[in-house]
Design brief:
With about 375 residues, the protein is mainly β. The protein has helices at about 1-15, 50-55; strands at about 75-85, 90-95, 100, 105, 110, 115-125, 130-150, 155-160, 175-195, 200-220, 230-255, 260-285, 290-315, 320-335, 360-370.
């Protein structure tokens, strides 16, 4: 019995190597590396950097586009206009050979010479993520005009308004000096909407404009033959008004570069009041100074048109976008008049001169720099 049990156990031990291999753990073959486990397919890529998010809200320049959520941003900056005024009629004074029955003979008009002058400008605004925004704009311009001549002793002189009698007949080598000044102050407050991307953008603006126009005129006549005896004429012409303003601005980037072209058109209508005053001073035969003055006031509607064309360069650094613009600009102020105007403010013979409904324009260039952040 014991011998039979030993035989059975021996047969079982000898039969183990012949069992199925699927029941064994697999053996690694020499020289083969262990396979790398697969990553988690549910893992998402890292969020975009802060710089990439900031570049998504830029308009033009070298900013890279990305599928980020748009954000609101500020815009602020300033610059300079460099403009010269041009008047439909801007007389400094009139000279004539004499008067027959109150009518001047061979009346000659002398105009003011004008120059280019610098005008500061500034702007600030905020644009929301949906493209709506608000901004304020300001610029101030001041320029002077000059005119002078020397008389031959047979000429009469009158101020450009033509509203006063001829001044006394100056002697030979008498000098005539006239000056004028034009000063503008303009304020805009607008709602804006911008549409587009880095390559092309369109901005529409509408709001209110307040402006003041101040013009001064001065004429002096000095006769060297009569020291201390002088004739002078002064006048002021002021306007202030408020009204609606509308603007359209377009920007087009050039071939994904840092450069862009832009254009702006604007129209405004101001409703306000204008007033003028004038004073003539002369020395009579007794050596006394006699002064005559007058004043007048009007209700005016003043349309204004503007256009600007130029180029822009931009640079993005982090969440800030710096830009500079260089362009040409033209403005026209319908019915703004000139310094001497032409209203009959005092007694005397009228001479065709300044026109109270005269237009003037401004033409020149602009340099502007700003930042979006």
């Amino acid at each position: 019995m014991r011998k039979n049990l030993v035989r059975i156990l021996s047969l079982i031990v000898l039969g183990l190597p012949t069992m199925p291999v699927g029941a064994q753990a697999p053996l690694l073959q020499p020289g083969l590396a262990e396979p790398t486990p697969l990553g988690n397919p549910a893992e998402s890529p890292p969020p975009p950097s802060v710089q990439a998010q900031a570049s998504a809200v830029q308009h033009l320049g070298c900013a890279d586009s990305c599928p980020c959520t748009p954000q609101g941003y500020w815009t602020a900056g300033g610059g300079l206009y460099y403009m010269r005024p041009s008047f439909g009629s801007n007389p400094a004074f009139f000279t004539s050979k004499g008067v027959i029955a109150g009518t001047p003979i061979a009346n000659t008009q002398q105009d003011f010479s004008q120059r280019l002058d610098v005008a500061p400008l500034a702007f600030v605004g905020y644009t929301f993520a949906n493209g709506l925004g608000i901004r304020g704009r300001w610029f101030q311009y001041s320029t002077d005009g000059q005119a002078s001549t020397t008389l031959n002793g047979t000429q009469l002189v009158s101020p450009a308004t033509g509203s006063l009698a001829f001044l006394t007949n100056p002697g030979p080598k008498s000098t005539v000096d006239a000056s004028s000044n034009l000063k503008l102050s303009v304020y805009d407050l607008e709602a804006t909407y911008v549409w587009g991307n880095e390559g092309f953008s369109l901005l529409i603006a509408g709001g209110a404009r307040y402006a003041t126009v101040r013009q001064n005129y001065q004429l002096n006549i000095n006769d060297p033959a009569v020291p201390g005896v002088a004739n002078s004429f002064s006048a002021t012409h002021n306007f202030s008004g408020v009204g609606p303003t509308l603007a359209l601005e377009v920007r087009k980037q050039i071939c994904n570069s840092c450069f862009a072209l832009y254009g702006t058109a604007r129209g405004s209508v101001l409703f306000g009041s204008g007033n003028q005053s004038s004073t003539v001073s002369a020395t009579d035969t007794f050596g006394d100074v006699v002064a005559v003055s007058g004043s007048g006031q009007q209700t005016l509607v003043l349309p204004i048109g503007e256009i600007e064309l130029g180029g822009e360069v931009a640079y993005v650094w982090g969440r800030y976008r710096f830009f500079g613009q260089l362009g040409v600009i033209g403005q026209i102020w319908w019915g703004a008049g000139n310094a001497s105007q032409g209203l009959d403010l005092s007694t005397g013979s009228a001479v065709s001169g300044g026109n109270s409904n005269n237009n003037f324009g401004l033409i020149g260039g602009v340099v502007r720099a700003g930042i979006n952040f």
